[in-house]
Write a structure and sequence with these properties.
The structure holds three protein chains of three kinds.
Chain A (H helix, E strand, L loop, with lengths): L1 H16 L32 H43 L3
Chain B lengths: L4 H21 L13 H28 L2 H32 L8 H22 L4 H13 L1 H11 L15 H45 L1
Chain C lengths: L1 H19 L1 H21 L9 H28 L1 H7 L4 H31 L7 H25 L6 H28 L5 H30 L2
Helix pairs in contact in C: 1-5, 2-3, 2-5, 3-5, 3-6, 3-7, 5-6, 5-8, 6-7, 6-8, 7-8
Classes of the chains: A mainly alpha, B mainly alpha, C mainly alpha.
Chain lengths: 95, 220, 225
């Protein structure tokens, strides 16, 4: 218990240990002065967003689906094994 | 499975069907445009990742000091979910960053500590799978150390100059962005609860199986 | 009583080690080989990469440390002395602390050899501020060893312990390594900024306290069967 108390006290003292002040602000976005057609931008800025967006959402869907299938399969095989064992025990007669 | 499970699955499915509509109707963000819409899955996944890590940590502490086997099952299930949602966060983030920051990855505090936290979760699963007997308590110890990482991940962006958006963004979200975000977050939370419950059931069945094998051995 | 147990464990480890010096020699040699491999891999046209020295030093410490931890507890496992230690009427945290100090001493000895070697091979002015460097090294080593001792001890009876130790250890100790590297790199600047060094040292101190406290707290339940 003493260790828990010590730990909590130290945790509270952690912010006091830091010298540098908090830097939370992001620089404000640049104000646009003029309109530039997209072809004139450097190649990096011309990156189309749609493939990235589609890739992101597809990955989410795939990952979640794959996990659900994985758990369901494992559950199914364990359940099968359980049923098999229980019927075996019933046959051989449980005391 | 408990009675609330099937209705909850139906509700969750419906919410997942409605969410894209809300997301599509949300306005474009001024500087990032279309790619910002990844936000609506990236942020809830990140929250679920942190929630899973905390769940695993708390359950591990309780297992380590009280020995309640149910806590061990919760901890293992939560660790798997942490790997799942962590992976989603760590993939959707760079896909967004590629367009928004011009680079796939930055070694700033938030990204580095998230990656490390995710690796701790993977290490937990490896230990459970390959550690053999006794690895349940050891994994609990590992999860404890990993949980110390969580508050660090969350507040790190506020104390270090970093390219990642700070925690100030969410509280100041305009409603047009907020509605799809919170809807998406609740959907993910419901999914998290369902997946956790399902995974815990798997552990419960495994425990019953082990007990049955043990009983069979004793009868011979 | 607590301090006496710590001292007894430390003295036992030291006595056993001094007889054969097996772990000391192999760890030192491994650390040196590590640095040499980096030197061969990274030196181009006779010049070392900019600012690589800090990272290489800490990587060598991390690798050598993992090796030393594995070997130390392997020796305990083979002689079954760990079980004897745990059965003894001694406070478990004291046993942990004794083992921790032994590992720290071993790693510091390795670092005393590594620092001049890295200075030489990578032309890095590591020895310009020896006091600062010593503090950074001690703080980082304690943080790394605190987690390492706990994990190595708890893995003693686990299968695949050799590969699992690095797998478990590195993600947890990455913050310590990062802080150590940043502090050392700041020290290597032509005009070291005391503020930055103090910042990273404060972070290292925090990690040390957190890790040692957590380890002391969990050593008892983790080492019980």
């Amino acid at each position: 218990m003493t260790f828990l108390r010590t730990f909590l006290v130290v945790l509270l003292l952690i912010p006091a240990a830091f010298d540098l002040p908090a830097r939370a602000q992001q620089p404000p976005p640049q104000q646009q002065d003029e309109f530039i057609p997209i072809e004139k931008l450097p190649p990096q800025d011309q990156l189309p967003a749609a493939p990235l967006l589609v890739a992101a959402y597809s990955f989410v869907a795939l990952a979640l689906f794959a996990y659900v299938v994985s758990v369901a399969r494992r559950l199914g095989s364990v359940q099968q094994e359980l049923n098999r064992l229980e019927s075996e025990l019933k046959r051989s007669g449980r005391t | 499975m408990p009675k609330w499970f099937t209705p909850a699955v139906v509700i969750c499915g419906l919410m997942f069907a409605v969410a894209p509509i809300l997301i599509a109707e949300a306005p474009y963000e001024s500087t990032m445009g279309l790619v910002q819409k990844i936000f609506y899955v990236h942020l809830p996944s990140a929250w679920m990742f942190l929630l899973a890590a905390i769940t695993c940590g708390v359950a591990s502490v309780r297992y380590l000091f009280r020995g309640n086997p149910r806590q061990d099952r919760i901890a293992w299930s939560a660790a798997e979910l942490a790997v799942l949602f962590g992976a989603i966060t760590l993939v959707t983030g760079p896909l967004w960053a590629r367009k928004a920051w011009g680079t796939w990855w930055q070694w700033d505090v938030r990204l580095t500590s998230s990656l490390m936290g995710w690796m701790v979760a993977v290490a937990y699963l490896l230990l459970r799978k390959y550690g053999g007997p006794g690895s349940d308590k050891l994994a609990a110890g590992l999860a404890l150390f990993g949980m110390a990482n969580v508050p660090f991940v969350y507040i790190s962006v506020n104390y270090w100059r970093t390219i990642h958006p700070t925690t100030n963004v969410v509280p100041t979200l305009p409603t047009s962005f907020g509605v799809p975000l919170w809807f998406s977050a609740v959907t993910f939370l419901l999914l998290f609860v369902l997946l956790l419950r399902m995974r815990i059931r798997l552990e419960e069945q495994r425990t019953r199986l082990d007990a049955l094998y043990l009983a069979m051995d004793e009868h011979r | 009583m607590f301090a006496r147990i710590v001292w007894l464990v430390l003295r036992k480890d030291f006595t056993v080690e001094v007889r054969s010096l097996e772990i000391a020699y192999t760890t030192l040699f491994f650390a040196i080989s590590c640095v040499l491999v980096f030197a061969f891999a990274l030196v181009q046209e006779g010049r070392a990469p900019e600012g690589g020295a800090a990272g290489i030093l800490w990587i060598a410490i991390a690798f050598a440390g993992t090796l030393a931890l594995g070997r130390t507890f392997e020796r305990e496992r083979q002689s079954e002395t760990l079980r004897a230690l745990l059965l003894a009427p001694a406070a478990r945290p004291a046993v942990y602390l004794g083992k921790l100090l032994g590992i720290v001493a071993l790693l510091l000895a390795a670092e005393i050899l590594l620092v001049p070697l890295v200075t030489l091979l990578f032309q890095a002015p590591l020895l310009e501020h020896p006091a600062w460097l010593a503090v950074i090294l001690v703080a980082g080593t304690i943080g790394f060893a605190a987690v390492g001792t706990l994990f190595a001890a708890m893995l003693v009876r686990v299968r695949s312990r050799d590969v699992l130790l690095p797998v478990l250890l590195y993600p947890i100790t990455v913050p310590v390594i990062i802080a150590g590297v940043r502090a050392t790199a700041a020290l290597l600047e032509p005009q070291p900024d005391a503020g930055i060094i103090r910042f990273w040292l404060a972070l290292l101190a925090c990690f040390d306290v957190v890790f040692v406290t957590l380890a002391l707290w969990t050593f008892e339940p983790l080492m019980t069967d």
